Amino acid sequence: MGESFIESLARPSEWTSTHLAGLVGLLLVVAPFAIGSYQTYLLTDALILGLFATGFNVLYGYTGLLSFGHAMFFAGAGYTLAVFMTDGVSALGLGAIFGGATPLVALAIAVVVGVLVAVILAVPVGFLSVRLEEIYFAMITLSFSMAVYTIILQDYGGVTNGSDGITVILSEADLFGIGVPLLSRTVYYFLVLAIVAPSMYLLWRIVRSPFGTVLTAIRENPERAAAIGIDVRRQRWASFVISAAFSGLAGAIYIPLHNVVAPGIAHWSFSAEPVIMTVLGGPYSFAGPILGAFVFRYLRWFVTQYPFFQAHWQLVFGTLVLVVLLFFKQGVAGALKYGRRYVEARSMGEPEGEP
Amino acid sequence: MTTVLETKDLVKEFGALRAVDRLSVAFDSEDVTSIIGPNGAGKTTFYNLLTGRLTPTSGTVLLHTDGGEADITGLPTHDIARRGLSRAFQINNLFEGLSVLDNIRAARLATEGRTYELSTIMRDDDGLYERAWAVLEQTELTAVAEETVANLSHGDKRKVEIGLSLATDPSLVLLDEPTAGMNPNESERMVELIEQLDEETETTFVLTEHDMDIVLSISDRIIVLDQGSLLADGTPETVMQDERVTAAYLGEST
Amino acid sequence: MVELPVVEILTGLSLGSRLFLVALGLSLIFGVLGVLNFAHGALYMVGAYVTISVVQSVVGNFWVAAVLAGVGVGLVGVAMEVGFIRRIYERDQLDQLILTFAFVLIISDLTRIVWGSQSYTLDPPASLNNTVQIAGASFLTYRLFVIVAGIVAMAAFWYVLQRTFVGSLIRATSSDRQMSQLLGTNVSRLYTGVFALGSVIAGIGGALAAPLQAVTPGVGDQVIISAFVVVVIGGLGSFTGAFIGAMAIGLIQSFGTMWVRGADLFLPFVAMIIVLIFRPEGLFGEEGQ
Question: Which of A279, A345, C92, C229 is the Cys-Cys partner for C272 at CB 3.0 to 4.6 Å?
Answer without folding.
Answer: C229
